[in-house]
Structure formats: C-alpha cells, structure tokens
Amino acid sequence: MSIFEYNGAAIIAMAGKNCVAIGSDLRFGVQFQTLATDYQKIYKIHDHLYLGLAGLGTDAQTLSQRFVFKHNLYKLREERNIKPSTFGEMVSSTLYEKRFGPYFCSPVIAGLEEAKDGTWQPYLCGMDTIGAIEKAHDFMVAGTAPDSLSGMCESTWKPDMEPDELFETLSQCLLSGVDRDALSGWGGIVNVITKDQVITRTLKGRMD
Predict the structure, then answer these.
(1) Which GO terms describe its biological process (predicted)?
(2) CA nearest 127: which of 156, 98, 151, 152?
(3) Which terminus, N or C, of the chain has the lesser number of Cβ atoms within 10 Å?
C-alpha cells in the first residue's frame, strides 16, 4: 500500500458564481481499519481561504500548522490577509524546500480573490508533494479516489452555480465518489465560501 493511501482521504474543491466550495470526507483510518469518523482534513486560513490536505495524517497536521504560522507572519507584516493566489505560491515553495524528503500530502486550495473591478473570483489549485501547481477554473480533487471523484465532477459541474446549487453538486460528487473507495467515507463536511459568509454543513453518508 502506498504511503498516500495509509490514512485515506477524499477532497473536492469546486468553483461557482462569486463563490467557491471545498469538502472532504470524515474518516480517519490505518489502512482498512477505521479509527475515527470525525477527522477534518480541511483547514481554515482566513474567511476567504481554505486548505485541504490529503495524504498522511501526521504530515497534514504538521503542514497545516506551518501554513497558519506563515499566514500569521504575513498578516503581521502586511496588515492584510494573504490572497489565495499568493498563498498557493507559498505552499508550493514550502513543499519544494523539502523535495528530497517530501511531506506525503497533496494540498488543495480554495479561495475567493477580489478582482480590480470589485468582483470576487474563485481561485482553485492543487499540487503534488513537491509543489508543482495545477490551477483549475472548475474543480480540483485529491485523495485515494481521484478517478471516481473526477468522473462525478465532470458529469455534474456547470459554470456559474449559485451557493446552494454548488453545495448540492459538491455534496453529491463527494458522497458518490467515496462510496467507490474503501479508504474514505463515513460522511463529510462541506464549506461554501461567499463574499459575506462561510456556510459549513455536515453530510451523512454510508457507515460501512
């Protein structure tokens, strides 16, 4: 078994109209043994920026603490929150620093970025263990079931979805994807990020 599949994960980030959503499953296991069903894989950086970390659980916790620390330093120095695109580059460089002994994590970044014309644009990106960035305008997946998650997203995503429709679409993709993966599941959690608020909802899934 690959070290990336040791704990199991399923993460989806999806773009909508002036909103973005990111969701993950809640299972924490050691290979095929389930240890917890309330393990969160999504970390809040600030109100308009969330980070999902799929891969080895210990490395995910280490990385999340490092990124929160780096954002706090940035906020002290610049007196503003970091932009999602800038944060993506920071995550990439942090991973590349350790390329000869990498963290076993695949980050997914979802955020809203204010454009020059005053509108809020979704920002989505993912990367591998050494920080090679892949940006997307529609959706980004990571975890132990990327094929089934990608297939569901490709068949159901459409542009300019409102927050409620975006939540419903991402939730159905997440639940359907983890049903085809023994290493993830046991419900999920979805964060929908808009300009004014973050809506967090918990999903109930199959418990087998």
Answers:
(1) proteasome-mediated ubiquitin-dependent protein catabolic process
(2) 98
(3) C
